[in-house]
Design brief:
The complex is a heterodimer.
Chain A lengths: L10 H27 L12 H30 L5 H26 L11 H25 L14
Helix pairs in contact in A: 1-2, 1-3, 3-4
Chain B lengths: L6 H8 L17 H4 L2 H25 L5 H17 L2 H9 L1 H21 L2 H8 L2 H12 L1 H6 L2 H17 L2 H7 L1 H23 L10 H24 L12 H41 L12 H6 L3 H21 L23
Helix pairs in contact in B: 3-4, 3-7, 4-6, 5-6, 6-12, 6-14, 7-8, 10-12, 10-13, 11-12, 13-14
Classes of the chains: A mainly alpha, B mainly alpha.
Chain lengths: 160, 352
């Protein structure tokens, strides 16, 4: 840590920061593509229970701050030359897939904030939604495993 | 400004259909349409004038440059306030709840953001005489101000005010009573400034909570705003009680509230984390803990100064020298607030 030359890459932080951006990006994609462009989700599903409304509001507000914070922290990592790029990609995919899965399972099914689309058979949509989430997560896991020694020339990285 | 622009207004006022009635004074009295611009013009002139006086006095007292970004932010904030109380928007707001919502967004979120990013308290401290500077600093360090300017208090005041307005009959009452509407507007501006300042203001704040705390409060307040917007949307048929708007109009207003709040939240978050980055780069070593990132080495200091050594070094030296009177006046006001925090609104303030 106290090497006088190049600072060691901050792998764990790179993963975390990129995951924050991934979550924010996926939330933005959901909002822009499905809510606004396709109009599949409504702005507000009138059957949403109050707890769903509150959790949705919290999640939405947190996503926006998360993506801003993510970009600033990312810029900070780059500025200090401690960004581990391959780990960051892993984190980004984990964030994308993680949010997609959370949205598909918790928001759509558990809290029933809204559904993917209305007046259609939901099963294929749910399968595609959560399947895509699992694919993104799998990519993230593979990248994370393959980049686990990134920047650990001194051999100090605890492999997961 | 040419007089031709005023002519149509005057003609309209003279028309029997106009709502301006000035018995007895036909030629000398200003038409109602011109008078209606008075609040906007007075707001703009007073705010910009006061800031300009502050700038001149500060230059006389300290002789150091002031960030052009801050001045621009102040002018933008003042302009947004003026727009919010200008006749076109006021009449739209009377006709359409969405216009009303836009007015509230400007008053409560966007104008305060500009005003707060202009660091008016820092300007005041620089412009005031030593005695007044001490008094101001003591006031800022006092317990009531500390409680009032805490992000949690400020967040409760803004979102609580909104909830009271839209969930009680206050909204309907304010539609027909100009003084009440003015009071509500003042509350919007004041609580909005308080909140923006508490979360992301560049002004010195004694015992300021950490960046992480402020981010959490920002999320919670924005969430309350979003939930309230959706609640309005969900109960558009009944909700501002007694307002008598059509559900479609209220739904549109609720969506303005929701997405307008999003943009304001993102802007505030940008200001918050820009402040975090500035503190980290300038004075991380002194404060020890600069934000959610936790402790971290800041080797950026050297790379930053050797880019434009002369002016930047001079600026830095000037800053630390300048903050000494304030610091000497109130020991409590600066510990949580390194010189970097009070230096500039935008990262690129080097243009001054």
């Amino acid at each position: 840590m106290t090497a006088p030359g190049r600072p060691p890459l901050e792998r764990r932080r790179s993963v975390l920061v990129a995951a924050m951006i991934g979550v924010g990006v996926m939330a933005a994609v959901d909002e822009i593509v499905f809510h606004q462009l396709l109009g599949w989700h409504s702005f507000y599903d009138r059957s949403t229970p109050a707890v769903g409304l509150v959790s949705d509001g919290l999640l939405h507000a947190a996503e926006l701050v998360l993506i801003v914070a993510g970009f600033f922290l990312f810029a900070d990592l780059r500025h200090r030359h401690v960004l581990a790029p391959r780990s960051a990609w892993a984190g980004a995919f984990l964030g994308l897939g993680g949010f997609q899965l959370f949205d598909g399972v918790v928001d759509h099914k558990v809290l029933r904030v809204h559904q993917i689309r209305y007046d259609v058979d939901l099963l294929p949509y749910d399968l595609a939604w959560n399947g895509a989430a699992l694919v993104l997560l799998a990519v993230g896991v593979v990248l994370a495993v393959r980049s686990r020694h990134e920047g650990a020339a001194a051999g100090s990285a605890p492999a997961p | 400004m040419s007089t031709a622009g005023w002519e149509p207004l005057a003609l309209r006022a003279a028309h029997p259909g106009g709502h301006g009635h000035h018995p007895g004074s036909s030629a000398t009295a200003l038409p109602a349409e011109v008078l209606a611009w008075l609040p906007a013009v007075v707001t703009l002139v007073l705010l910009v004038g006061a800031y300009a006086v502050g700038l001149v006095r500060r230059r006389g007292a300290l002789g150091r440059p002031w960030s052009g970004w801050r001045t621009a932010a102040w002018c933008a904030g003042a302009l947004l306030l003026a727009v919010a109380v200008s006749p076109p928007l006021v009449s739209t707001a009377h006709a359409d709840p969405a216009g009303h919502m836009v007015q509230h967004l400007l008053l409560g979120m966007y104008a305060p953001l500009g005003l707060v990013l202009a660091a008016p308290v820092t300007l005041l401290l620089g412009a005031a005489s030593p005695a007044w500077r001490r008094r101001t600093a003591r006031l800022l360090g006092s317990r009531p101000v500390h409680v009032l300017s805490h992000p949690v208090t400020a967040g409760l005041l803004t979102s609580g005010g909104l909830a009271v307005l839209y969930l009680t009959s206050l909204y309907a009452a304010s539609l027909h009573r100009p003084w009440l509407h003015a009071l509500v507007s003042v509350h919007f501006v004041a609580s909005g400034c308080l909140f923006a300042s508490a979360v992301a203001g560049p002004d010195p704040v004694p015992r300021r909570p950490s960046t992480a705390t402020r981010a959490v409060v920002l999320v919670l307040t924005a969430a309350a705003h979003a939930v309230l917007a959706k609640w309005l949307y969900a109960h558009a048929g009944t909700l501002p009680p007694g307002a008598g708007h059509t559900p479609a109009a209220t739904e549109r207003a609720a969506q303005w509230m929701y997405y307008g709040g999003d943009v304001a939240e993102v802007l505030l978050a940008c200001a918050l984390f820009a402040g975090w980055r500035r503190a980290r780069r300038h004075g991380a070593r002194r404060t020890g803990r600069a934000g959610p990132g936790g402790p971290g080495p800041a080797p950026s200091h050297s790379t930053r100064t050797d880019r434009s050594t002369g002016s930047r070094a001079a600026r830095t030296a000037g800053h630390s020298a300048a903050s000494t009177p304030t610091r000497a006046a109130t020991a409590s006001i600066t510990p949580t607030c390194p010189a970097g925090t009070t230096s500039s609104v935008m990262p690129s303030s080097s243009n001054t």
